[in-house]
């Protein structure tokens, strides 16, 4: 991958990582590794079978932030840096993430992914599910070739991804706290893979187990913070910035944190929360009704409370890496943790 020296680094990395621009040598190393990971990713997804080749490469070629590979590369730089094994681990992390997107879009009946029709809209549910399975199989095969410890991290992460989806699908059991259940779901569905990406980079980069564990804690917390911020952004975005209609989660009945907080308050007898829930639980197929429900939730204190919960997870992520020696990598990790809860999309 050829990089343009004239193009600002801040325009080529997710928000929060622009601090890397302060270290030209490090930035160059990160970009070189990312380019090699991208090439290897497409290679690993390729197949001699035409349908498998097209469907497996479909979402990868549609783009994406590549946050998980980036974290794998960055955390390796706390040790010996992104050698071939680190880069392969970064590929596995992105493949695992891609596979979950194929499955999630089928389960959620999502029509669009990354600005293009979702895979199940193109080939149908069965092909989309099988494509996700194929990608997971290849990711597991690649990780198996990198040793027992890497395979263990990969398999444990995959188990958490599945359990998170299962628990989200069936919902909280009678007597469970819905808010705790939801936080557990997103820790499994989102946090676990970000944690694995951060851990594997440190592990294959030659860092100590203590450092790898520290970075796994960071990754999980930053992943949860990211998803919690998404819950609020779904309500507060202007649509043009986020690329989707504000309140999409409300319309689809997704139990995000602001709504769970509303239900908690309503159960405690707060009349204002009851009135807002009347709108939220109504028929939201019309744009006017949806806009009214969104406005009611946004102006209720639960929206700010949800932001506070997201920021608390961001703070947990920052605290996890506070003990690392000062470096550009540490600054980037801290900056990214702040950025995930300070964004509009």
From TrEMBL:
Record's keyword terms, sorted: Magnesium, Metal-binding, Transferase
Highest taxon, organism lineage: Bacteria
Magnesium listed as a keyword: yes
Keyword Phosphoprotein part of the UniProt annotation: no
Entry cofactors: Mg(2+)
Signal sequence residues: none
UniProt-listed SUPFAM superfamilies: Terpenoid synthases
InterPro entries in UniProt: Isoprenoid_synthase_dom_sf (IPR008949), Polyprenyl_synt (IPR000092), Polyprenyl_synt_CS (IPR033749)
Pfam families per record: polyprenyl_synt
Assigned protein family: Belongs to the FPP/GGPP synthase family.
Protein name: Polyprenyl synthetase family protein
Species of provenance: Nesterenkonia aethiopica
Lineage: Bacteria, Bacillati, Actinomycetota, Actinomycetes, Micrococcales
């Amino acid at each position: 991958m050829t990089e343009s020296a004239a193009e600002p680094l801040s325009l080529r990395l997710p928000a929060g990582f622009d601090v890397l621009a302060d270290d030209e040598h490090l930035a160059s190393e990160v970009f070189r590794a990312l380019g090699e990971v991208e090439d290897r990713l497409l290679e690993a997804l390729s197949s001699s079978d035409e349908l498998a080749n097209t469907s497996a490469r479909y979402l990868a070629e549609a783009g994406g932030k590549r946050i998980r590979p980036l974290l794998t590369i960055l955390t390796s730089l706390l040790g010996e840096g992104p050698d071939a094994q680190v880069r392969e681990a970064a590929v596995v992390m992105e493949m695992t993430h891609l596979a979950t997107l194929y499955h999630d879009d089928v389960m959620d009946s999502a029509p669009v992914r990354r600005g293009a029709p979702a895979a199940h809209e193109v080939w149908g549910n069965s092909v989309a599910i099988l494509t996700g399975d194929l990608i997971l199989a290849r990711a597991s095969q690649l990780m198996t070739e990198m040793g027992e410890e890497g395979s263990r991290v990969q398999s444990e992460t995959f188990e958490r991804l599945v359990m998170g989806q299962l628990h989200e699908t069936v919902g909280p059991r009678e007597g469970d706290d819905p808010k705790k259940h939801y936080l557990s779901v997103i820790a499994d569905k989102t946090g676990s893979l970000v944690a694995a990406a951060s851990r594997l980079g440190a592990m294959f980069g030659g860092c100590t187990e203590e450092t790898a564990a520290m970075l796994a804690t960071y990754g999980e917390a930053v992943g949860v913070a990211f998803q919690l911020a998404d819950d609020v952004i779904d309500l507060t975005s202007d649509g043009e910035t986020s690329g989707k209609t504000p309140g999409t989660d409300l319309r689809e009945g997704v139990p995000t944190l602001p709504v769970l907080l509303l239900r908690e308050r309503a159960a405690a007898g707060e009349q204002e929360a009851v009135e807002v829930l009347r709108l939220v639980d109504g028929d939201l197929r019309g744009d006017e009704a949806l806009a009214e429900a969104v406005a009611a939730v946004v102006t209720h204190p639960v929206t700010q409370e949800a932001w506070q919960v997201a920021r608390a997870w961001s703070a947990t992520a920052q605290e996890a890496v506070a003990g690392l020696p000062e470096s550009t990598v540490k600054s980037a990790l801290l900056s990214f943790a702040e950025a995930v809860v300070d964004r509009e999309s």
